[in-house]
Amino acid sequence: MAFAPARSIGPGRPKDMEKRAAILEAAKRLFPQHGYEGTSMDAIAAEAGVSKLTVYSHFGGKDSLFVEAVRTKCEERLSADVFAVDPASPVRGQLLEIARAFFALITSEEAIGMHRTLVASAQQSPKLAQLFWEAGPAQVQRGFAALLQAKVEARQLDIPDTRRAATQFFALIKGECHARMEFGCGCFEPREIEDHLNATVDMFLRAYASR
Question: I need a surface site. Which of 88, 153, 181, 192 has the fewest CB within 10 A?
Answer without folding.
Answer: 88
